[in-house]
Amino acid sequence: MSLKPSVNFHSLYDGDKFAGLAYYVESESTIYLTYLAVNEKLRGHGYGSQILTMLENKYQDKAIVIDIEPVVPTAKNYKQRISRLKFYERNGFHRTDQKLKDQDGEFEALTTGKKLDKVGFAKALKQMSFGLYQFKIEK
Questions:
Q1: What topology is assigned to 7-131 in CATH?
Q2: Residue 24's Cα: distance from chain center in Å?
């Protein structure tokens, strides 16, 4: 449940087992998937893909956008970053060469759309934070 109708939180269960969750924001043209998590004990069984498929089916007319840590060989968790990128690419996302910069650092934007809708993405970010979140989207 959220204070704003455009901010959504969904959990996925397999029977009585918690499998994963998605936290996302909806604007007119964009779904910004700000957080996707799968129960560590159940990873590799398709639950993350199921969550993404649910979002794609529910919002067929909108591009889904995520941001990930930049995939740079010098990163301590480089293998994890590669794995994360490959997961999203297998699920229909592609790289945009656009960066999201905020107080936590720089992140690479991926989307299911033909290209990143910067305006829709910015609207989703503002809706998520009541307009208080400080960020820049740049190439």
A1: Aminopeptidase (3.40.630)
A2: 7
